[in-house]
Amino acid sequence: MAEPTPLVLNGAYMIRAGSSVTAEGSAELRIGPDGVFIAPGAGPPTGIPYTDMEAILCGEHVITVPLRGGQVLQLRRLGGRFDEAFLALRQCHVDALSVALLVAEPTVVEAFGAEFASHDSVPAEAEVRLYDTRLGVFPYDGAPLVAEYSELAGISFDAASYRVVFSLVGGGQLWLGKLGRRSQDLPDQLNALRARASGWTQQALQRLFPSLPGLTLAQLAGTMRHGFAVCTREFVNWGVDPWAAIEALLPGADSEGTLARTAIRDTCPDGQAWIGVAVFPGSGFFSEQSQLDPVTDESGSPADWMVYALGLLPGGRSIAYEVLTAEDCATYGFRIEAESEWSELLRCLRRVQFRREPISVAEADLATAKAGRYALAARVVPELQWLRQRFLGRALHTSVDAWLDAVRRWQD
Questions:
Q1: Rounded to an integer, what distance in angstroms lies between the CA atom of residue 351 and that of residue 343?
Q2: pLDDT tens across 69-90, in order?
Q3: Quick one: which H or E segment has residue 164?
Q4: What is the DSSP secondary structure assignment for residue 253, as one 8-state letter?
């Protein structure tokens, strides 16, 4: 895909640190995909990445950008191109944040402005993005919110307030307002996207449990939504053995994968393992490692998918997280403080789209070029912070003894 053409303008800039002006003057301003490049008439050029920008604020003929570290950038003297510059800067900022904060999916179905509030929060102006499997809300002055379609229990239009209201599976509500003519159409559009995402998941479950009749499969899909796990002892209600189903799905699989699956099953106390399915549309995050053929929607659009397990280890204070259908993925360990943190662990894994690298990368490595793409997310995404704080380590699939030694350390 070709890089978007930068917006080039003539104007002026000022950078302040507290009450002191550290740089100012006339300049060529280049708003590109990675940041704002300032080429002053005199002095060295300055590049400011979007990930250093805290917000994009519109004033009277002035665009104000608070920067990480306490400095403030102002763009001035833009004349008749002021609105164009503000919209382009805000759009590029959201594009960059959506990637840096682990929100983005390969496809943006639609993006639009709205007023947004969650629970009892103060309403705020935001950009809303509809992805293939998730809703992303980017307040213009605040951290983004993400809701998987599988986390939405219901969507309705409230005619009295002229808002679209979202009920969440775990409780609570979100709402979008100031939608204009979109208000009454948005629930239908979102329900269509939810049905499409659910169809991918149901097709994945059909691959996993081919013997289940259609109605039973639909009931299982209602419980085993994308990113929601089911306790292994509950599968008896559907007349299937999940461990046998996974083995049948991966005939002739490598020995390391077999070790991982049997180790999780045999190490956990009876019935204390949970199994789930996660789906990643387009060029998903597991495409290079997946041992499974993609599922497709009615139009033929593919989605990668995986089966994962969470195992409560002996002692009840640690959980092993294993991707059961990917090649050579280490087992990840997490500390839990209470039984209620089971669901919080899963919610946080959904938020980071089950990525493993941003969880395990060392703090010191966040400054390096390779791992640095996770630095902003590690700093500001609460769910990633939660996972990193409780992360116990990785157990490699080199041998049964080595794996058991690593897992036993998590139980101490």
A1: 12
A2: 899 999 999 999 999 999 999 9
A3: strand 163-168
A4: -
